[in-house]
Amino acid sequence: MATFLYQLGRLSFRRRHVVALIWVALLTLAGVGAASAPAAGNSSFSIPGTEAQKAFDLLEQRFPGTSADGATARVVFKAPSGEKMTDPGNRATVEDTVKELSDGSEVVRVTDPYQAKAVSKDGTIAYAQVSYKVSGMELDDASKDALEDSAQDARKAGLTVEIGGDALQAVPHTGSSEIFGIAVAAVVLVITFGSLVAAGLPLLTALIGVGIGVSAITGLASALDLGTTTSTLAMMIGLAVGIDYALFIVSRYRAELAEGREREEAAGRAVGTAGSAVVFAGLTVVIALVGLSVVNIPMLTKMGIAAAGTVAIAVLIALTMIPALLGYAGRKIRPMGEKGKLPGRAKQQDKPAEPAKPNLGTRWASFVVRRPLAVLLLGVIGLGAAAVPATSLELGLPDDGSQPVSTTQRRAYDLLSEGFGPGFNGPLMVVVDAKDSADPKAVFAETGDEIKALKDVVTVTPAQPNKAGDTATITVIPGSKPSSATTENLVHGIRDAGAGIQADTDANVLVTGSTAMNIDVSEKLNDALVPYLVLVVGLAFLLLIVVFRSILVPLKAALGFLLSVMAALGAVVAVFQWGWLSDLMGVEQTGPVMSMMPIFMVGVVFGLAMDYEVFLVTRMREAYVHGEKPAQAVVTGFRHGARVVTAAAVIMMAVFAGFIGSSESMVKMIGFGLAIAVFFDAFVVRMAIVPAVLALLGRKAWWLPKWLDRALPNVDVEGEGLRDASDRRDTDRDLVRA
Q: Is pTM, for the whole model, over 0.85?
């Protein structure tokens, strides 16, 4: 592989005009496609195989035209102090609002609070429920404006009016902190390279790669039902890996220049060596992201595949466009160790040479090699302490109760809890399929009675059958809030009671609704976590065996990853569930951690963790296979790679942390989780635990059974083939001169 990539790097350097033109053309094509494509909203949320999804599908069949998955809005009214909603003036205002809401073209029905008995016992709070034909993100702006205008008219009459439900869902924004993350990356690159030109190359190529990837996602969003979170995730990961991959190749190019090689040769060797590490690091990220499909949640699968595609683009750009841009930059990219012309920095080429001092990476690695056991124990204990909060992990999906208190959805949620109880915000819909029963009406009545006998049930509405009379819906109001463990137990209790009814009457009892769907999603994700870990870690383990030609090094990499991801989950629990540093992070409402967070963090963090493992340890193996002792190879690897890996980690942390400013709680949590996970993995696991373990293992770290050594393909990540070819060229040149 190194030889092929070496030739690709030299070709891209020579044919820089063609390479640049191809990528600019792809960016333009993707941009035009995104601009001309129809707008798409949030991806439709379906969970194949879950009971809640089966109930939704049954409702579509047995209750046609009811739009079971359509948007809903709860317009909540509160009377002024000392008044009640039943007062004539307040009642007239509500009835006018209901009439106004009913005129919408996308409205299916609007319930009158006074006819539906949707007035609190103390008479101070009432609500009208609006049902729409389409989902919240598919609603026309005119429908949303009409909803808000109706509420505003009622406010002018003196009522407090708030709107809950998903009808007012908004496209999340990331805020200016995303730009701040890119700015931090630029500063780190300038410090690392000491050159504005060299620092600009990784940023430029990363932005081009993300531009192509996100534009392609935007262009295909409507056709493939991709949501807004998909492009945000692709941007987040694409920027991080795009900058990092380019950073490693440019750093290796400067190192090759420092050894006296011509620029085209240096570009080829940089792509052949560092580019090989980029390919395998990218493969681990792609494996981790595509592996999300095993969870069988379409939205998560699409997010993973889209982000993996953006990572693949970042790899291709690093291998081709970086050497092309190096050709354009010419002598503006200086050899490593040669001072640049940054403002305020004097040119030092004419000063007498001084003995080079060991850099910080060398000094740190030497310290770890001298005291490996102490460093190992300190790192493991520290990460273990950070992981302690993860033992209290509670999973759930966000609802209006997790919204900031400044939003109308959250205020509506609080008003409903005040007037009708906390469980009113998470009603359960029980669907009774009595098509195969002898007496459907009796089954409906029996089901209602069974549910009433369960704990934590406040209200059970009478069964509402369809026209055929073979299927009915029953609404159940729990006594606890939607995200509580008590409500989850109630859902399971209804399903257990339904199993007994099915055995007696052949009727199928299904529980659905947003609360039941959230519970099913959490359980499905929990069940998929272990198979996903086995698949992704197993595939990456095999890949790393090929790269490092070792058993213990990949095993150590996987165990170190588990430590860092558990510590990161502990930090997420501490901030988003316990509320530590919540003000600093902009977390207005603590609550359960999102159900998909653990499996998503496992996938993304594993891929990124293997990036640093590949980049850092390949340098160590390169030194080892070229004759250095194991301990010295660790120091050599850090001398060449520690500064660059540190810069890459800081950049990745800055990019991820930039998304903490998002208005979407899911994006905010993912940004924080990935940023802290990169910190733990790069600076504790890869910079401390990895060299400590390698120092303790010595030559055993690179042990590989002979039969396996013969069976594995030789991918030559270290560039041994390039060294041999270079030696042959030097010999031929000497013979010609002789």
A: no
Other C-beta atoms lying within 10 Å of the C-beta of residue 239: 30
pLDDT, tens digit, 9 for 90 and up, residues 189-204 = 888 777 788 888 888 8
Percent over 90 (pLDDT), the chain: 25
Q: Are 626 and 724 in contact (CB under 8 A)?
A: no
Write out pLDDT tens, residues 431-478: 999 988 888 899 999 999 999 999 889 888 888 898 888 999 998 999
Of 373, 266, 369, the residue nearest 326 (C-alpha) = 266
| pLDDT (mean) for 717-736 | 53
- For 596, the token pair is 């998909």
Tell whether the model's pLDDT for residue 342 goes beyond 80: no
On the question of pLDDT at 351 being above 70, the answer is no
Considering only CA atoms, which of 274, 240, 243, 242 is closest in space to residue 256? Answer: 274
Give the Cα-Cα-Cα angle 599, 601, 606 (nearest 5 degrees). Answer: 105
Please give the full DSSP string across 652-687, using - where no structure is assigned: HHHHHHGGGG-SSHHHHHHHHHHHHHHHIIIIIIII
With beta carbons less than 8 A apart as the criterion, state whether 285 and 608 touch: yes
What value does the CA radius of gyration of the chain take, rounded to a whole number of Å? 30
Q: How many CB atoms lie within 10 A of CB 470?
A: 17
- H or E segment and range at residue 31: helix 16-36
Q: What are phi and psi of 161, to 5 degrees?
A: -130, 125
CA distance 542 to 550: 10
Decide if 690 contacts 537 (C-beta within 8 A). no
Query: Which uninterrupted H or E stretch holds 476?
Result: strand 471-478
Whole-angstrom distance, CA of residue 479 vs CA of residue 470: 29
* Chain-centre distance for alpha carbon 420: 36
Q: Longest C-alpha distance within the chain, in Å?
A: 111
Q: Are 363 and 307 in contact (CB under 8 A)?
A: no
- Cα angle for residues 119, 120, 124 (degrees, 5° grid): 90
- Measure the CA dihedral 261/263/264/265, to 10°: 20
Per-residue pLDDT, 726: 52
